[in-house]
Hints:
The complex is a heterodimer of chains A (61) and B (239). Chain A has four helices and no strands. With 61 residues, chain A is mainly alpha-helical. Chain A has a domain at 23-61. Chain A is elongated. With 239 residues, chain B is mainly alpha-helical. Chain B has one domain (3-144, 195-237). Chain B has helices spanning 3-28, 30-52, 63-68, 80-107, 113-134, 147-170, 174-190, 204-237. Classes of the chains: A mainly alpha (61), B mainly alpha (239). Chains A and B meet through α2, α3 and α4 of A and α1, α2, α3, α4 and α5 of B. Chain B: This is Cobalt transporter. Chain B: Keywords: Membrane, Transmembrane, Transmembrane helix.
Amino acid sequence: MQQTRTAASLPIASHDLSVVYQAVIAMALGLFIVGFVGFSHIDAVHNAAHDVRHSNAFPCH
Amino acid sequence: MSIFRSIVFSAVLSGLIGGTAVTVLQYFSTVPLILKAETYEHQAPEAGAKPTDESAKGHAPHDHASHEHEPTAWKPTEGLQRNGLTAAANILTAIGFSLLLAGFYALRGGVDRHEALLWGLSGFVVFTAAPGLGLPPELPGVPVAALGARQLWWIMTALATALGMGLIFLHRAVWATVLGFCLVVFPHLVGAPQLAGAHSDVPDALSHQFMVAVTMTSLLFWTLLGCLTGVFFRRFSAR
């Protein structure tokens, strides 16, 4: 309720907030991808991305 | 087009181009050095393992050695499969970093060409230069401290450097600058986890060559990724 009323009375602010949400979700997705490729402890993932981990100076075995 | 879609589209395109470009660069710079170091890595355990096999039972040998010789762990075959997976991992990493950059561009309400270049260079400082001061790029076969501890320090350093640089560049107040510098310096006061008294068969000259190769390829990668993400984000968000 509160949110709807705020959104209706402050269209610009709610638009900005929506940009923030969308940007933050995209950035979290980006960090998740980097974390999975570069930091996962799963052996197969480590071996597949081995040269990339070393070449990007991510900590590797 | 919604902001989220603009971010994703520009990140995927920039990641595809940036990831492919860095794979080509690495193919001629870092990968030959990794392959060379692996010859030392594979020699080392065979030379030393036999006499100490019995006495070393129960002790975990060097992390990499135990890991490398794990018979159940899947490994890509040499050549096309290994290089193909390197390309795929580079593209995925580039898409991930580009999502981060495009997210910042969206939060800033867009960027011009010069700002995009500076964001790319900031990425280099945050993700390569700062963690690399404590944990220099290492070749396979070089003994290193426990993986978990190094990953934790790496992530903490990247985060503190990013926050610090954000405060320094995006806030004009004196307190923000001071706090920013403190954040950038702090992880290096704590110090990266190091392995004391370890001996490596990998020559120092090779390690040094690798450090330079990684740092330079990374600099080119981040410059390219910052600029590409800026160009594509401007294009998609204008629709």
